[in-house]
């Protein structure tokens, strides 16, 4: 609750990098710190998540269960994706595979994508791929349309304290974040109405990917 008496939206921020020093983690930390009067962002790491394999995909992997629970209880998610060879890094793709097999915490969850990379296109190609992945039926996230937050030339973009140097970029991120907060409220309101309307949901397994063969 803020001093003005309104409930702050709770988001989780996931950096799709397992590098010790990650520009995408720096970007998320900056967003969480810069806009902490408007939104509560908890940062999550994917470093402890093993590579996904269907052979051993039990949900009792602690790191996967932790991530799943945190995403499930958040109002929305911000993913900061690096770009490796014009797509998302394997580590991030693997985490999403874990989170779309036995557990589905992204189902109906509002997601905003941001990204930082070395080159001038600032993860634009990785972001397109990530959007497609998140919209696959087993993931079924609700991704904020448009509004691409592309932090190019990442090596020069931050100062020594992890602050984004370019004011226009900061203002743009602020504008997108405000749109995302509205988007989160709308999507979560629709979701609640749908839950009330469709009693059958209580019985689970209401979508094709939830059938036994897909791990429901
Ligand atoms: C295998 C590999 C491929 C890469 N491919 C791209 C690329 O396609 N586009 C790009 O902008 N940067 C590319 N980079 C550089 C990344 O932008 C850079 O490593 C960035 O720091 C990754 O994000 P992180 O610091 O959050 O881990 C690549 C890096 C690696 C190691």
Structure report:
Helices cover 37% and strands 13% of the residues. By secondary structure, the chain is an alpha/beta fold. It has a single domain (10-214), classed as Rossmann fold (3-Layer(aba) Sandwich), CATH 3.40.50.360. Strands 1, 2, 3, 4, 5 and 6 form a 6-stranded parallel β-sheet that branches. β1, α1 and β2 form a beta-alpha-beta unit. The chain is globular, with a radius of gyration of 17 Å. The structure holds flavin mononucleotide. Flavin mononucleotide is lined by residues 17, 19, 22-24, 82-86, 117-119, 154.
- What general form does the structure show? globular
Total strands: 6
CATH fold call: Rossmann fold
- The separation of the N and C termini measures 37 Å
How would you name the CATH homologous superfamily? Answer: Flavodoxin domain
Structural descriptors:
Rossmann fold; 6 helices; binds flavin mononucleotide; disordered C terminus; alpha/beta; 6 strands; 37% helix; 216 residues; single chain
How would the blueprint of this fold be written?
Elements: E1 10-15, H1 23-34, E2 40-44, H2 62-73, E3 76-80, H3 90-98, E4 110-116, H4 124-134, E5 142-143, E6 149-151, H5 154-157, H6 167-197
Describe the structure concisely for a colleague.
The protein has 216 residues and is an alpha/beta fold. Helix content is 37%, strand content 13%. It starts with 9 loop residues before the first strand and ends in a 19-residue tail after the last helix.
């Amino acid at each position: 609750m803020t001093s003005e008496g309104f409930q702050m939206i709770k988001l989780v921020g996931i950096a799709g990098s397992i590098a010790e020093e990650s520009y995408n983690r720096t970007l998320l930390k900056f967003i969480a710190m810069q806009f902490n009067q408007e939104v509560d962002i908890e940062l999550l790491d994917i470093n402890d998540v093993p590579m996904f394999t269907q052979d051993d995909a039990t949900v009792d992997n602690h790191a996967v269960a932790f991530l799943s629970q945190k995403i499930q209880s958040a109002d929305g998610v911000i993913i900061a994706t690096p770009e490796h060879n014009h797509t998302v890094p394997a580590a991030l793709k693997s985490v999403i595979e874990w989170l779309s097999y036995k557990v589905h915490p992204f189902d109906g969850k509002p997601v905003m994508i941001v990204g930082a990379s070395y080159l001038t296109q600032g993860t634009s190609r990785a972001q397109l791929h990530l959007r497609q992945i998140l919209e696959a039926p087993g993931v079924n996230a609700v991704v904020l349309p448009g509004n691409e937050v592309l932090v190019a030339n990442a090596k020069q973009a931050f100062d020594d304290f992890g602050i984004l140097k370019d004011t226009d970029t900061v203002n743009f991120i602020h504008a997108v974040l405000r749109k995302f907060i509205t988007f989160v409220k709308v999507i979560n309101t629709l979701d609640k109405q749908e839950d009330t309307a469709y009693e059958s949901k209580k019985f689970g397994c209401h979508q094709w990917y939830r059938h036994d063969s897909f791990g429901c």
